[in-house]
Amino acid sequence: MKKLILILLLPYLLIAATEKDSISNIEYKSDEIIVIDDDFNAVQKNMNTVLNSVDDLLKYNNSIDLITRANFASEAIVRGYDQNRLSVTIDGMRMFSACIDKMDPITSYIEVENLKASEVSADKSDMSHGISVGGSLNFITNKPTINNDFRIVLDNQISSASEYYNSKGRVDYSSGNFATLISYSVKNAGNFTAGNSTLIGNSSFSKENVKLNTLYNSSTNITHGLEYIYDHSADVGYPALIMDTRSTEMNMLSYQLGMKNINDVILSWDTRVYYNSISHLMDDYDRSDEEIMNRSVMPGMYMPMDGTTETMGFLTKNKLLVGDDILKFTLEVFRMNAFSDMKMEMLETGREMYLINLGDIETYSGGIYTGYFTQLNESLLLKLNGRIDYITRKVNSEFARATAESYWGDNYSNNNLQLNTSANLQLEISESQNANITLSRVERAPTHLESFGFYIYNIADNSIYIGNPELNKEKSYSVNLGYDYHAENFNLKLNLYNDYIVDYIAGLNDDGVEVVETFAQSFKLFQNIGNANITGMEASIDYNINSSFGLLGKLKYQYSQSLTYNEALPFTPPLSGIINLSYNSEDYTGVMSAEFASRQNNISKNINIEDSTPGYVILNWRNNYKINETVTVRFGIENILDKYYYTHFSINNLPNLGRNIYLGLVVGL
Ligand SMILES: [Cu+2]
After folding, report:
1. CA angle (360, 361, 364) in 5-degree steps
2. Of 228, 203, 207, 225, nearest to 216 (Cα)?
3. Residue 347 CA to ligand 1 centre (angstroms)
4. How many angstroms does the Cα of residue 280 sit away from the middle of ligand 1?
């Protein structure tokens, strides 16, 4: 019975885990607050047994949608805000995508066996992992535990729609004060078949990921952690884009010092130093001569492109008890370098040209966050947040400066001070009901691409983008209303929100450019295009019908508008949701789910060029059967009806997978 509830509530708990510090009054007063951050341990392991990928898992967060460009790691967007408008971190550490065509969103470096939980601060009531106009998204990875145990789990899976093979596993070893965790994943996929048995060419990929973790307890309340992640993907076909990934390599290394209950005041103090680098190479060598000669952008030439980012940082967070109140304090500093260049190789003449897209853009950023949580009375909890970041950027490459001189003059650096505040009030209406309101004022400096990107092609609007060093910060004024109802076998959660955005940043046609006749593209310069407004709602329920059956439902809707153009913003989520009916016995879990979205006619025509997206319903059947203590099988059919569909977040209307039959074998020793 206990297990049932756990599995039924998995998606709910995952969300619950993300609502950070929504501490009930009792917990708030007690010592339990110390362990709250580490509380959602058992949940993830079970989640992994029913769902197959990080993408599947993220879909169960009601604020998240996924932008797809290939049958490969999708980009997570929160309430329609993409990675440019989110602070995306792994264990609080910064990482920046190396591909200027967004082939390597941060989510591509996370594997399901590494992921413990995802924290989303869509209402901006938490700023400890940075903050942007769309909030923050932090991935918490699995860590070793000190339990004097040795355990191996191997998980092999095949699935039909893309002749996909995935081998993954983890080894946990712990002895005395020492623990280690090693996990790996190897993936291989051929071309995938979309709905109605439609084969999508050039859509295969391969990927490997290894994560090594060690933990050492030097005393009862002091831990030292060392973490290394290696990720490599190769030959990733992008049917929706004009190029494919040749290879991407990511290395990430960090050391963490964790201290708990140092004295009556300092409840926890975590410090981290980290380094990561990403190297990305893409080209169009696999495309046919016919495609190269006839495509609308830069026909007749190959365009291999290189991209690298390198980030190093320091992060220290602590939680203090001040009287009866909690004070959270974070200090963060990081440096990031981004470089990207391309060659243009004429097919007919063999002549070559060279261009730098990101001219070794160096970013320094320093931030201080303070959160103050106080219990006003028996039923009212107030959280006040403030965060200041100072960001400075400059273009180091002389070549890049010279190329862009006609646009930027001698303006090759900018500095921004970001001031962010939010207040969150939580009201316990009764034993079973809670309400909360969050007001926030958040701003973000333009990204390095928006400031200093040069000739960056966007296939969605067939335009070439140029950065603008003189952009104003984008500001957002938000209100978020939340309501929770929880009974023994029923939970309801509601969110209503409105974001008013000032100085929205987007590319606008640059009239100053004389378009060469052979160019079918328009040139767009990043500009502040006025104000925008986003209104939305999210609702979720879970209901334990009886000891065997459970129901889970999620629904969301958003309406967005650029006030300048009187049209929707790009990637506005339509009315969409998920319904799960699950059955559970001691050895078996089965989940029937329906994912659906209505037609999206609120589209962007000026900021981006979108078309209306038809609605869809797809059905999935996923199962997990425990044969004995050692062996578990996982099997199911996704998109049972073989529906041909794509979401509003699909680039160039690339369809999703068709009927997909999968079988996995999990062996745990
Ligand atoms: Cu790329």
Report:
1. 130
2. 225
3. 21
4. 7
**What is the identity of the amino acid at 162?**
S
The helix (run of H) or strand (run of E) holding residue 466 is strand 463-466
Over residues 164-189, the pLDDT tens digits come to 999 999 999 999 999 999 999 999 99
Ligand 1 center to 248 CA (angstroms): 9
Give me ligand 1 centre to Cα 282, in Å.
5
Q: How far is the CA of 645 from the centre of ligand 1 (A)?
A: 25
Ligand 1 center to 201 CA (angstroms): 18
Query: For 295, how many CA atoms within 13 A lie in the half-sphere containing its CB?
Result: 19
The pTM of the whole model exceeds 0.85:
yes
Mean pLDDT of 129-141: 93
Q: How remote is the CA of residue 159 from the centroid of ligand 1, in Å?
A: 26
Question: What separation in Å is there between the alpha carbon of 236 and the centre of ligand 1?
Answer: 10
The torsion angles phi and psi of 414, rounded to 5 degrees, stand at -150, 155
Half-sphere exposure of 291 toward its Cβ, with a 13 Å CA cutoff? 11
Residue 331: name the closest of 274, 369, 275, 386 by CA.
369
User: Structural domains in the chain?
Assistant: 2-668 (2.40.170.20)
Which residues pair with residue 664 across a beta bridge? 157, 634
How many angstroms is it from 662 CA to the middle of ligand 1? Answer: 29
For residue 419 the two structure tokens come to 């001031």
Q: 402 phi and psi, to 5 degrees?
A: -65, -40
Distance 341 CA to ligand 1 centre (A): 11
* Helical axes 10-18 vs 41-50, angle rounded to 10°: 140
**Among 654, 398, 532, 563, residue whose Cα is nearest residue 80:** 532
* Tens-digit pLDDT profile for residues 85-100: 999 999 999 999 999 9
Please name every residue paired with 225 in a beta bridge, in sequence order, or none if there are none: 215, 256
Structure tokens, 392: 């400075």
Distance 600 CA to ligand 1 centre (A): 28
Three-class secondary structure of residue 664 per DSSP? strand
Count of Cβ atoms closer than 10 Å to residue 409 Cβ: 10
Residue-wise pLDDT tens digits, 203-248:
999 999 999 999 999 998 999 999 999 999 999 999 999 999 999 9
Ligand 1 centre to CA of 105 (Å) is 10
Residue 209: CA atoms inside 13 Å, Cβ hemisphere, count? Answer: 23
Task: State the distance from the centre of ligand 1 to the C-alpha of 79, rounded, in angstroms.
Answer: 25
